[in-house]
Amino acid sequence: MGVSPGVGLHRPAILRSGARAGLKTWQQSPLLGFRFAATQLTGQMTMNLADKERLLSKFNGNPPMNVSFIRKLESDSGLCLPDNYVRFLQQTDGGEGFIGNAYLILWRVGDLIEMNKAYQVADYAPGLFLFGSDGGDEAFAFDMRTESKFIVSVPFVGMELELIQPLGATFNAFLETLFEFRMMPHPNDIRKNHVQDCANKEIFEIQPVILGGSPTDPRNKAVLTRKQHIEAVRYWNNVILQIKNSK
């Protein structure tokens, strides 16, 4: 017996469209994680000055984080962050901006555990540890199930391990993959035209692609604060879970 999507759930006010019954077969939408040539999956462990200037020239980084804070966070949480990423944090503790034509939001290391809990990652994609996003609909994560902690993308809405896409064996290789991004229509086209309005925010599909929404129609886009984005993602993932459980 089926159920109506969203029954018992509070729909965030920002989501103007109702849920549609039934899941579409997931398609490779024009979102960032699905459109990389992914030729830079391996890379050197350290970033030299020339690479930093080339890759991060349009990235607005936060001040560096002290390594003692990072090690304490690892000790308290039981995490073991990749060395390549820890070295990056000692230069830039998160931030956002364009890496080539691709957009990158990196969360502060002190917010990582709270963000992963808020997005319910352990429930939908156990073994992944999110550290940022493309500013559109894709989260970036370390695959903690692998020894190398390979970096992958996974959709925020419809989050599941079967949908991960490899982006790099090291953090530097991940940045190179972003830099090699081939420009196509993408939510960040909106960001380029409204830089100030979109700062520190996520561009979100009001009706997710997996539930029949358009990945390209500007009318299906909303610019959300982090709090709104977490609420919207949790809502739609609960809707999708209800639909799956009703089959």
Outline of this structure?
This protein has 247 residues and is α+β, with helices and mostly antiparallel strands. The chain has helices at 49-55, 67-77, 83-89, 112-118, 121-124, 171-179, 188-193, 195-198, 226-246, and strands spanning 58-61, 95-99, 102-106, 128-133, 138-143, 151-155, 165-168, 202-205, 221-224. Strand 4 and strand 5 form a beta hairpin.
The rounded distance between the terminal residues' Cα atoms is 8 Å
CATH topology: SMI1/KNR4-like
Q: Find the count of extended strands (DSSP E, 2+ residues).
A: 9
Count of domains: 1
Summarize model confidence as the mean pLDDT. 83
Strand order of the largest sheet: 1-2-3-4-5-6-7
Shape: globular
Assign the CATH architecture: 3-Layer(aba) Sandwich
Uncertain stretches: 1-8, 17-21, 25-40
Discrete helix count: 9
CATH superfamily: SMI1/KNR4-like
Helical residues, percent:
25-40%
Main beta-sheet annotation: 7 strands, antiparallel
User: What is the succession of H and E elements?
Assistant: HEHHEEHHEEEEHHHEEH
Strand content: 15-25%
Question: What is the C-alpha radius of gyration, as a whole number of Å?
Answer: 18 Å
- Summing up helix and strand content along with how strands pair, one would put the structural category as alpha+beta
Oligomer: single chain
CATH class: Alpha Beta
